[in-house]
Design goal:
alpha+beta, Glutaredoxin, 11 helices, 4 strands, 7% strand, binds glutathione
Length: 267
Amino acid sequence: MLTLYHQGSSVCAAKVRIVLHEKRAEWTGEIVDVLRGEQFQDWYLALNPNAVVPTLVDDGRPIVESTVICEYLDDILPAPPLRSADAYDLAAMRIWTKRIDERLHPMTSVLTYSASHRHTILDNNTPEQVEAIIEETRDPVKRQRKREWIELGIEAPSARAAVAEFEKTLADMEAALSRTPWLAGDAYSLADVGMTPYVNRLSMMGMEGFWNGRPNVEGWFARVRDRASFLPALIDAVPDDLTASLATYGARSWPRVEEMLETLRAD
Ligand SMILES: N[C@@H](CCC(=O)N[C@@H](CS)C(=O)NCC(=O)O)C(=O)O
């Protein structure tokens, strides 16, 4: 019995949902509303001491870390395989998933919060409630960053670094996809699963301009969107109000992001 603790807005949780749908697994989902601080409740901390989603519980045993969860699912549900039997392609896949975990994911929080979530938080809460949302983040470094994104939005110093990281990632995707049809070889793999929610996040925020002049990324994303896993894992799982706010506020932030991109591309 597989239970996924997740949330529609979470890119990490989306990776796991993709794998569950690719495998046609039987699973149940429990929503942990990370935008309202539910991840800090004691019952959830007992499952995931890092206070983040996703957590997979398999017959009462919790597994954390989305990349680890995806590999675990590929171990227990081998068909269809999402990791190559070829050692080189497998290494290439892990370079992508490692890069996503270490570099792209932290920058996605910056971009999403500073371009979109901050507006939702500011528009729907009193100043005291906003302060409470910031203060409930236990890690002092994360708390300070959240404050900066909520207060400064896309003008936060970290926002430029986030735009630069996405720009570099998409440039490297374009190069990889000019060599092979999928990111880590001839077959769809956990590398493609891993990148999908991040590219989709840009798309949901109306920031498709990131792949202007990148036909291989554009073609890859079209093929990813055609997969049966895409709609249930990436679109249907996202609450309507969140989809609307990502689109509205993302579009509002895009002109400034585009300016940053133009500067980066001119350098
Ligand atoms: N390395 C973790 C990162 C998980 C993570 O950052 N989850 C985000 C949503 S994508 C979260 O729960 N954020 C809530 C918070 O930081 O308070 C994983 O891959 O599972």
